[in-house]
Amino acid sequence: MKVLPDTHTLVWGLQDAPPLSKAARKILIESEVVVSVASLWELLLKKDKRDALVTDPLTWWGNYVIKTNLPVVGIRQSHVIEVGRLPPIHRDPFDRILIAQSIVEKIPLVSKDRQFSRYGVQVLW
C-alpha cells in the first residue's frame, strides 16, 4: 500500500521520534511511503519558529529524503484545483495541499490530525 505522511509524521517517522504511534510506525515500515514537496516547503517556512520540527530543513531533507530515495510528489495543477474545492474545515495551507494530493492521487494520509478525515480521505494513525 502507498501512503502519504503529513509533515509531522514524516519527521517523526524518519527520526524514529516518540510522538509516532505504534500503528503509524508499523504502517510507515510496511508501506510504500511517498512524501510531498509541500512538506519541504512547510519545514523551510517554519524553521525559525521556536517549535520548529527541523531547524535545517535543506540538510535534513537531503539526508532523510533524497539520500534514501523516497519518492516525492510535486504540487501539480490538479492538486491546486482540488484545494479550491475543499471546504474550509482546515485552515493550514500545507495540510490542505496534502489533503488535496491524497484525494487526487488516491493515497491514504498518515497523520494524527483527526480533522483530515472530515474531508473524506482515508487517514491512518
Description:
The chain has 125 residues and is an alpha/beta fold. It has one domain: 3-Layer(aba) Sandwich (Rossmann fold), CATH 3.40.50. The radius of gyration is 14 Å and the shape is globular. The chain starts with a strand and ends with a strand. The mean pLDDT is 96.
Strand residue content: 5-15%
Gross morphology: globular
Overall structural class, as computed from helix and strand content, comes to alpha/beta
Mean pLDDT: 96
> What is the helix tally?
6
Overall number of strands: 6
Question: Unreliable segments (pLDDT under 50, ≥5 consecutive)?
Answer: none
Main sheet characteristics: 4 strands, parallel
> Within the largest sheet, what's the order of strands?
2-1-5-6
Q: First CA to last CA: what distance?
A: 14 Å
What does the radius of gyration come to?
A: 14 Å
- Number of domain modules: 1
What would CATH call the homologous superfamily? 5'-nuclease
CATH class: Alpha Beta
What is the name of the CATH architecture?
A: 3-Layer(aba) Sandwich
CATH topology: Rossmann fold
Q: Helical residue percent?
A: 40-55%
What is the H/E order? EHHEEHHEHHEE
Q: Top keywords for this entry?
A:
two-stranded parallel sheet, 6 helices, 125 residues, alpha/beta, globular, Rossmann fold, four-stranded parallel sheet
